[in-house]
Design brief:
mainly alpha, 24 helices, 2 strands
Length: 487
Amino acid sequence: MLAQIKRLGTDTAIYGVSTILGRFLNFLLVPFYTNVLLPGEYGVAANVYAIIAFANVVYAYGLESAYFKYSSTREIGSETQNFSTPFISLVLSSGVFSAVLIACAGSLGGMLALPGDPRLVVACSAGMLFFDTVAVIPFAALRMGHKPALFGTLKFLNIAVNVACNIVLLLVFHAGMEGIFISGLIASAFTVVTLLPTIAKNFRWDFSRSLYRALLAFGLPYVPSGLAAIVIQVVDRPVMLYLTNKTTVGVYQANYRLGIFMMLIVSMFDYAWRPFFLSHAAEPGAKKMFARVLTYFVTGTSFVLLVLSFFIGDIVRMKFSGHYLIHPSYWGGLSIVPVVLLAYLFLGVYTNLVAGIYIEKKTQKLPAITLAGAAANVAANFLLIPVMGMMGGAVATLLAYMVMAGALYVTVRQFYPVPYEWGRIGKVVLAGGIVEILFLTVNAGELRILWNTALLLLFGALLAVFRFVDPEELQALRSLRHRGPAV
């Protein structure tokens, strides 16, 4: 079991190197935007990208998830058909969807009250949606083919091109907010070009109707589920804009993006996790292995949560070439960062628990779960933002992911029970809670960096005191320690 989990960790690390590098480049756009755009402009761009996130779900209509399921089992159709059938469907449908959006660009731009050239923004958004959808199945094929290095490299190049175009268009050509969307279109088109060898290798004009029916049956429930998930991710911005102002949304968005550190971990884990559990689902000890994965995931992400909570204030105040990581006018929102990090941790738990849904083909259960989370999110935003300001939006996101993780656990255990190690996870939560309380209650003043470092060491010491590591893991550690050098 530990050997398989090690393979999962290796794949996650490979995805992680490229993902971290790419997302770090993308993250650099946050201080860049905060230094070249007014908070109001940044807030408008954030809202448009929120709409694009919703459209992405409709454009893909669950075929990526369906591809993972059926390409892993080959229940229906050949290997070629499992690639070509969803690919043909997505290329044709996304072309139609984007053509309609471009034809209606003027009226849509007016409805959204976009500044600058609204037709250009809508047209670029439609183009991004088309190219991103064309890339869905080729990227999924790389993941199923256990090619994390190539997958990560192409993702990194997409972000690198996007960042470079942003810098050139906004700094050199002073394109303003429109430059953000032109950059996105160029990067998306470039990515499809880099995927052409993968497409050429796997694609044939070989469309299976029986496979397509199965793909739709599995994938379509992801549309309401995916839309609800996007609601949780983005609805706080328009609600906050309605209840407050553009400046507050801009400050909130910049600090919310600092949660990228935890989102990176969840994303790179998910890249490796879905192919992993589908490949090992039929093994006798699969459920015990999946339980152990959740334990390790919660332990690792809890440590990351503590590190970032303790040092995020120092990180954003560091200067690079005379500029802060984010401009001081945005520092008023730093208090939301730990809450956002914890929210992403619960999203990671949800990602772990979803294995049973895939394995047992119970995707029809997902809409109710994600809709419950979305409903909790919307209600909490309207209730908490007037009272807590931008902190209310962060807490609403946390509550939504907690509801989703809890509802998914209760649902999945009915048809795919996994013996999760809740006792060990409880020890992690207890140790983290003690350390966090000490962080919040003790003012170390100028010694805060030293004190916070000591608290991280205390977290590890408490896990040792609580006997978190089990005998099997101790034996594995001893064998590694006493193993001689390879010859």
